[in-house]
């Protein structure tokens, strides 16, 4: 870190949300336009998206308000000029995956396939962001882990290996997304192996309940950080988020 970096702090906001491919719970209603409005109101600098639709030929023909561009590009619009997409699941009519939207330049990105077996396709989207006036780049990893505990255990190990291999020890790091970790075992693994601390757990003693969005009971979604001076969770209103996806979003302010 340069002397200029050490003498001045820099804060940015992050948001993570599982978009459920633009539909409400049980695919009752297409809500991507309303979701875009809600995402904008948070004022996040970096947005982590899971289950974001790339293309879907059947929905394009069936829904009059289906966007002409991929969902991550539709959500980014003119607010986030930079975006990266990692395609995880491919099927006859389209594909979906993880995405990162950023107000800062994305210097490079790579999607790591961490699918174990069976129909579940999962990935880790690793982006390197260039912050204004900072010599050290910020690393951001958008995560979507499997439903089976044995799969998640192996995927967490792959995440730790990615951090060890690709992220300098002194670089700021944000790891966020849908961990499907209802047993809350990821906290210990990620802190012990990668030095990551969960924002809500560190601030309030427990991670946030995010699923199902209307009546959250399970702590599935997380924001982990490393090499951050301050990481403060942001409280988002229950409405309209509870009616936009099956997962509630999480947001935090990160200071370097």
From TrEMBL:
GO biological process: GPI anchor biosynthetic process
One Pfam family of this chain: Exo_endo_phos
GO molecular function: catalytic activity
Superkingdom of origin organism: Bacteria
Gene Ontology CC annotations of this record: membrane
Every Endonuclease/exonuclease/phosphatase domain range: 30-247
Protein name: Endonuclease/exonuclease/phosphatase domain-containing protein
Native source organism of the sequence: Methylibium petroleiphilum (strain ATCC BAA-1232 / LMG 22953 / PM1)
